[in-house]
Amino acid sequence: MGVAERLAGIMAGVGDMTIIDGDNLLWALRQTLEEREITTELELCRALSRYFAVTGEPGQVVFDGAGPADRSEFDTVTNPEILFAGFNRDADSVIEERLKVNTSPRRLTVVSSDRRLRKAAAVRKAAAVKSEEFWEQVRRELKRGRPRKPEPQEKREGLSEGETDRWMEAFGLDQ
Questions:
Q1: Can you give the pTM of this predicted structure?
Q2: Segment 105-116, tens digit of pLDDT
Q3: Is there a smaller number of Cβ atoms within 10 Å at the N or the C end of the chain?
Q4: In sequence order, which residues have a C-beta less than 8 Å from that of residue 145 and are 6 or more positions away?
């Protein structure tokens, strides 16, 4: 299976959870000339939050280190879940641990260009996508977006009297 097919399958919902090596993805973005607006962990998480909102898929981003002293701005990002490895561990170790303890690793997608993580994903039969490839998919999805389905008119107006009567009868309730 080629890279394009693998990415299409992964991004079409084959993987139930995407775990991202945050520092690796940031490094990949810094190497491209187009992505100069995303330079911090918080900016990356906000962009990924928009992506996961479009795809409806859950995600996690793991960064090296303990993170900023004030994490309150990260609290505004609900998906992806944001993790910092801490002082004595690196993000790669945290991601490897998550791969090991997951009971359904085939439903995971690991995003990193790091060979160590890609190998760990392969051992557990999880999907692995290079950071650059994943970011291209993120950009495409955000550009395309998903049209929102309009709310049904009934939601605003409520049920008609006849529909209400049918439901009341169906549940054996008298008016």
A1: 0.73
A2: 999 999 999 999
A3: C
A4: 54
